[in-house]
UniProtKB/TrEMBL annotation:
Organism listed in the record: Nematostella vectensis (Starlet sea anemone)
Motif stretch (Q motif): 244-272
Protein name: DEAD-box RNA helicase Q domain-containing protein
Record-annotated active site: C170 (nucleophile)
Main location: secreted
One function term, GO molecular function aspect: gamma-glutamyl-peptidase activity
Amino acid sequence: MAALTCLPLESKNRQKQNMMLFKNILTLLVICFGILTTDAKGNNKTGHISGSPRRIGSLADESSIRTNQPIIGILAQEATGKISKEVSGQYIEGSYVQMVESAGARVVPILINQSPHQILKIFNSINGLLLPGGHVKLQKSGYGRVGKMLYEMAVKSNQQGQPFPIWAECLGLELIALLASGRGLARGQYDTELLDHTDTKQYSKPLDLSSDYKQSQLLSSADHAMIQYMTKALNAFNNHDKGLTPEEMKFPRPILAALKKKGITHPTPIQVQGLPAVLTGRDMIGIAFTGSGKTLVFTLPIIMFSLEQEKAMPFQRNEGPYGMIVVPS
């Protein structure tokens, strides 16, 4: 039997802290009781949450518990450092449970010692995932191993047209960045090829949104009041020592290093678009350093070359050669 402890936020008043701990433990007991009830009613031999391919917020089979509330999985992690003196095994911070439940959702704990089959069944029964912050080493922890499994399941689900959101906090965001970049977890959050040291302890500032934020899936539907709230007040709290800079989000570090040797410290939008095209092995034809009539001179060979390639090897959308014309503005 795995030990799972739910820890509350620190408080000056010990009595309030104990009450918060009691509420969190009670929450987990209710969740566990619901799962056991599911086992009794649905003859589920595993004692874990059964899969639901449509993610409709149902626990186990159709004859058992159903809810219209979103069900959010929260990944547990090993108790290490100072926390290991208070609890053993694995834990989930009570503040994450409170945050999710205050928004109207229900919480399902995801244990780090469950089998891949059990993790998959839970994944198919939840509507979203929360990866908490923490201090475990991603390269050799159950948190990193199970988090990687869940991330890969989420990517596959989204590719199949079933949206599955992930909220990644602190260590969770480092995990997502390493996996999404292809770096993997071999060096964990200590991978300096991707993550830079940042001096952002106890620091709040407005969010700095890019000019094309309306094109993002996350903010495309945000109303004006929400954008004003995020960008005009000190609502973005930062408390971390590692970060992913905008430059690193566009280029691998070796390319950035090569550009810096050439005196290019901040890649331009044209460089951002052009270099990845070259690195994919695509053909780039024609770079003009003046505008007007020369633009047409470079455009025609691009069109002719593309048509010939289409005849030799038909390609679909987003395939074939890339043509880039650089003109002054």
